[in-house]
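Quick entry between incubations.
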Amino acid sequence: MGDRLAPVRGEITEIVGGLSSGRTSHLLACLGEVVGRGETAALVDTEEIFDPGSAAEAGIDLRRLLWVRCGSNREVALRAADMLVRCPGFALVALDLGERVPRLPTTMAFRLKFAVRRTDVALLIVGRRRLTGSSAALAVETFREGIEWAGPGPTPTRLARVRTTTRVLRARRGASGRPPSSWWSA
Amino acid sequence: MSRFACVLVEHFDAAAIERCEPALRERPLAILNPRVDRPNVGREGGPTARIMTTIEANTAAREHGVRPGMTETEARARCPMLLTRPWVEEYVASARHALLEAALAVSPRIEDGGAGLAYVDTIGLERLIGDPAAIGRRLVHQVRAIGLIPRVGLAASRTAARMAAVNGSGAVTIIPPGRERATLAKVSIATLDLAPELIATLGRWGVRTLGELAALPREGLAARLGPPGLRAHDLALGLDRDPFRPWTPPPFWEEAQGLEWEIDSLGVLAGVLETVLERLCRRLAAVSLVADSLEIRLGLASGGHHARAVSLAYPMSEVKPMLTLAVLDLEAHPPPAAVTRVTISAHPIRTQAGQGGLWQPPAPAPRDLVTVLARLAALVGADNLGSPVLVDSHRSDAFTMLAFSPPSDAAASLDHRASAGGIISSHSPRAEGPEPPAGPGRRLALRRMRPARRVEVETVGERPVRVEARLVVASAGPWRASGEWWDREAWARDEWDVVLGDGALCRLARDRLVGHWYLDGFYD
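Done. Structure below.
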């Protein structure tokens, strides 16, 4: 993710999108950036979809990543994220809610907002739709633009890469301009 | 230079209770123990009487005339506002260990002189601490830090140092070298630990003070009283004939709390645990030690015990995280009956403080991290928490979980990143350009399905064309993989990347051993 769309410490960032739109790849990129700086990150994985192999291929130092698996229990996932954002020292807490994003009371959203502001943690929420409403400082939606296949002959034998783009849904600090495209190699 | 220091805590049994209940310190307190009287000795089944007898009284109670040996009734008659507590062996044992450990923080050579008494070898301490008065003040400070009020005497011998501590007027009393005999001359012989018969004999001779005892001819004493007489003479001269027996701390430090009522709620028990941990942590802090594990033993009303070992994620001496870990462990493994006694042991270790790098990014403080990890483990289960580690295997989704313990140096992570070829710059033009070279750092993520879902797939040849009635619009494969064919866990599969009619890009796998198709996950 470019600087413009990267999660900011002390604020909530949301990435929403459909299946295969590139939101999880963006999530891994954010985790990789944080961990690559020698900082510590946590991933609250609601549906246990995280693939350590993909993360390792993306260059993420898994030793600096705390993976919390929630067994598809969204309430537990929200409570785990709430605990983590209250622990100072994590640079990024990512919450992957998957396809079924629960309704979050406004009070809970504000609670998260003030917690991340106090502990200076960046909270990144990934899901099918938005969760925290106006509490998020930045919300982007991801789309898939194209797929490239590869192979020695006319019939492709492997997936080469996928191109995605983003659209800013909400930005407290002006993130206008041409939406960036990203290529993700398989 | 004084050779020895004596640390004395007066009325030690009472001081041990006051250490656990500091509010009692200013009030008259008597420690009681039941004495069994058998008025009809010799007759089987005769009635026995349990009389509560004072075995110790603090200074405030003694000012009212309360003395050890009095019955509770007699003590209360002399001091109506007297508070009483039962004698608890664990309190005294804990306080005795705490006193020795506090002395050990000043000198590596100490001797256990009994309950409330510790001897400290002060040779060499003048270079570290200063003159004898400074050494004495350091000892007083250390012992006060663990909740006991000491008196310290310094002299050339242990006996003289003890006499100085017993008879001194201030917190620290120093007998200059060569002045032992003169200083001790007026001290009563009752302060020496002599046999009552010997003191009675000396009393009949008119010997009342150490000076009078020291003036007696040694040969005559030996002839009339034997070795006990010679020992008494040595003590009166301030000489130590007994060897110094150094005391070494036990591998576990222990604090205990007896309860006058039964506790069946974890919330109330947490308050007791906090009190005990506070005492334990004060002891650890006084000698600059930390604990790396706790052992909690709960005495139960049913007569049994409930023991839990709590391993601390990092060595610590702070009460709050210790209490959190202990309570979370007891929440997961509650005692089967009401609790009547709490004992906590700590395994102490010495750690060296380190300084982080100037450019090292901030990380969660160990205290905060261990607390949040314990809470998360209670929420999601310890197995669902940690850092993933890839297993050396070609099998898809082969990983294991390790306890989360991020490396302390940032360089390690940067090296890891560089070796993986995954350096990402936030200013990289890749993020903006429409046709960037996709490096290793921008990998397409797979959202795994755990476990992989078995699906019905229609094929043309070997190529999938329909997945559970959903049309496949594009596909690539197969990517053939196999492994462990030399073992019973053999596996072989063909992987296909397919785009379904609804736009989902997923990975299918056909198990070549059984012919089933599985949905591994979605690229996202």
